[in-house]
Specification:
The protein has one domain (2-64). The protein has three helices and no strands. It has helices at 2-18, 21-48, 57-64.
Length: 71
């Protein structure tokens, strides 16, 4: 999804340089939407432990009340 946003961003830049304003604007809009969708999916995945249900060790230490740095 992020690669799609980058592709549309490059298309927008190239179209803008070549003078195709309508195509550049549309491509930039699509790139923005894809980037925002990527960020939302990334943050949800990060907060829920990822698609495979992996646990985040740092959050386990905080939840258990254990110190973050071992002495």
């Amino acid at each position: 999804m992020l690669s799609g946003a980058v592709v549309f961003l490059v298309i927008a830049i190239i179209a803008g340089v070549l003078g195709f304003g309508g195509i550049a604007g549309t491509s930039a809009g699509i790139a923005k939407v894809l980037f925002v969708v990527f960020l939302v999916v990334f943050l949800v995945s990060l907060l829920t432990g990822g698609a495979i249900g992996a646990e985040i060790p740092a959050l386990d230490f905080i939840a258990a009340g254990a110190p973050l740095a071992s002495e």
